[in-house]
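Researcher: Hi, I'm a grad student and pretty new to this. My advisor asked me to get structures for two proteins we've been looking at. I'm not sure of the right format, so I'll just paste the first sequence and hope you can take it from there.
Model: That works fine. Here's the first sequence with its structure tokens right after it:
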Amino acid sequence: MIAASSSTLLALVGFALAGVAVGPIEPTVYRTVTERTTERQRATALSAVTMIVYIGYLSSPPLLGAVAQVFDYQTLWLVGAGFALSIVVLLGVLRRTLAAKKP
């Protein structure tokens, strides 16, 4: 929606929808890690997830800025949509893998 928008209002609506959709993900990830690890592994697992999140927070602005500078903002949002789609696919693979390991 954001990549295809030609008006500011439509882009703002797209940003609002993206924020509402993405906002609950991080707390859910932390809760899932806590539920799926033993008490002994919990601190290590949470610190690993936190490290990955921080790497994403710190690396995404310059990387996305470079994409926007070389191409344009519509390409930037299409790249973001591609990443989001790849995450959905990888989560499906992970779900099947975890389901297969359950007794």
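Researcher: Oh nice, that was easy. Here's the second one.
Model: And its structure:
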Amino acid sequence: MFHWPPVPSCAKELRPRASGCPNAAAAESVCVARDVQLAELTGARLHVAHLSAKASLEQVRWAKQRGLRVSPAKSLRIIHFDR
């Protein structure tokens, strides 16, 4: 029996620790795509927490268009403002 975490957040596994790294969005998007595919294969619901990349949101939209039970979340504490 597999014991998966209720809210996968693997972006921190791949993303470099320095904020603003150009690879952070790509790492997050790859993780979200992987989780969406696993949800599709298993029929599980997926809640993606702490989205911060546009490509990740596109993955969630794609999944919802396919009828998968996927929901996104964005935390105000990780929103970065710049000029």
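Researcher: Is there anything I should tell my advisor about the second?
Model: You could mention this: DSSP finds three helices and two strands in the chain.
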